[in-house]
Recover the amino acids of this structure.
């Protein structure tokens, strides 16, 4: 079965950095897209950054100058480097992938369990 294992969350002071990593397993075919979303307290899930099927990496406007996302395609991992963190970045961060099922042509969204990022003032 598909599993997304997240790591790297924790507590950091404002202005600091964290690196979130996610490893996907149970997927037999190349993963078209991977990325990170987050859920702020009391709010809906929102885009942080993604590596799409094609084109440039996508970032939320609030993150694009501070965060960097990249993939290891061979290892089915995605990494989010977060710099200049702000208290408003405090959220549960979820790894995401859009991946083919065993048929090799149906695609589904998959989500990690989430990792807490807390940025203190």
């Amino acid at each position: 079965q598909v599993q997304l294992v997240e790591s790297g969350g924790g507590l950091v002071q404002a202005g600091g950095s964290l690196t979130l990593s996610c490893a996907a397993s149970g997927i037999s075919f190349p993963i078209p897209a991977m990325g990170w979303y987050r859920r702020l307290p009391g709010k809906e899930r929102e885009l942080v950054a993604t590596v799409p099927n094609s084109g440039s990496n996508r970032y939320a406007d609030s993150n694009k100058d501070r965060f960097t996302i990249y993939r290891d395609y061979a290892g089915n991992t995605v990494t989010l480097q977060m710099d200049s963190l702000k208290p408003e970045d405090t959220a549960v961060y979820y790894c995401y992938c859009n991946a083919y099922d065993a048929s090799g042509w149906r695609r589904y969204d998959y989500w990690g369990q989430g990792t807490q990022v807390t940025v203190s003032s």
Observations:
- Residues 49 and 59 are 4 Å apart (CA to CA).
